[in-house]
Amino acid sequence: MSGATRTAAAPAAAAEPDEGWTAPQVTALSVVAVLGVIVALTTSLLVPVLPQLSAQLGPDTPWLLTVTLLVGAVAVPVFGRLADLYGKRLMLIVAAVALTVGSVVCALSDTLAWLIVGRGITGLATAAIPLGISLIGTVLPPKRAGTGIALVSATLGIGGALGLPLAAFIAEHTDYHVLFWICAVGGLVAVVGILTVLREVRTETRGRMDLPGSVLLAAALVSLLLPLAQASRWGWSDPKTIGLLVLAAVLLVVFVLVERRTASPLVDMVTNARPALLLTNVASVCVGFALFASLIGTASYVQAPEASGYGFGSSVLVSGLCLLPSGIAMILLSPVSAKLSVRFGPKVTLALGSGVIAVGFLGRILFTGSLWEVVVFTTVAGAGTGIAYAAMPSLVLRAAPSSELAAANGLNTLARSVGSSLASAIGGTLLAASTLTLGTTVLPSLTAYRVLFAACAGAAVLGAVIALLIPAATPAEREAVPA
Fold first, then answer.
1. 3-209+264-477 has which CATH code?
2. What pTM, to 2 d.p., does this model score?
């Protein structure tokens, strides 16, 4: 935890060292955590209703997911830097307002164009989770900050796991617009809660917003994530896919060169190139890959007919409910992860979580005979994800200067999103590489799913190995370390 954090939190810790959580602390954490869950919900909320939307609005409905991904990828680092400069609470309010406004636009829209506009505005809210991580670490006393940060970090996985059953239930019983009204109400409640119970913490950061760097990074991220999001439609050999990926590589190199020469950079390349932060972010890509592949590899799997040799002919609702236990496991294990990080260190906890993820996917490969086996091992993978996600901010807090905490947490969240995008692109390719035909329906084969799960297990193992290689930040590389 930063020196600024330690100063802000010390009075609360001294006043009530042994009396547990106070009502204001619980309320503050609840506001930030609920906002994080709702923001994470927006990433998976439309997946079960995409067929319904495609029938009503046409074949371009995947853009409702893509636009949120692209806007969110750009918003996370930009909002993080603005938060370091002008205040974390202020930017968290902006993110919550964007969630509310974007959701209302979608709730009132019946055309694809306006839905895309609304989803684009909603994408700005993606920055709420790293902002919440940074803010909650400053408003809670040191003894509570670890648990609070772990819970907020885990909301990325919790929201994704809870979004599918909620959306499936809504899709079966009412109109899809209800999904957007739920998010709008949640966003409004979050705005009121932030204004009421959270205080701004004085920032010591000096500098100005790096507009050229923001434009460069935005162009690079769009060039990278757009072909990944559209890979299953365009194909990897399509000139658009190849051209955009090459352009992304060039723009990222230019961005790094420009940022290294900028007095007040959007991303401090010297700081983020340190092994403690760099390896944390690389491990985060691996865990993000495994989480999203679990989502895409569960719902469609259990919905497949029994004649496929692996499916159970389940409804959309049942397939969503299969992910519910994993979301609950993430909630329950986030405080456990915080305690493990205190006891053994966050890099060991991250490695442990990644190892549990690998066990879950190995179970998915080996045990395919019944639905309960799918639920059990999906839950195991979800539990590992919760442990791993909750450990990441502690590594960031130990390695990043207090003046760059929001930006560093934002970059870590972006790394997880890149992992999820890779999972979507590579997972779609793997599932399309080996198929079977039942009547007029083409489905992925069991072999295709097993290859996907093996890739997830491999990514998780790689994440565990990288986590164990993360060095401790030296005193010269950080201003303070959490107690």
1. 1.20.1250.20
2. 0.81
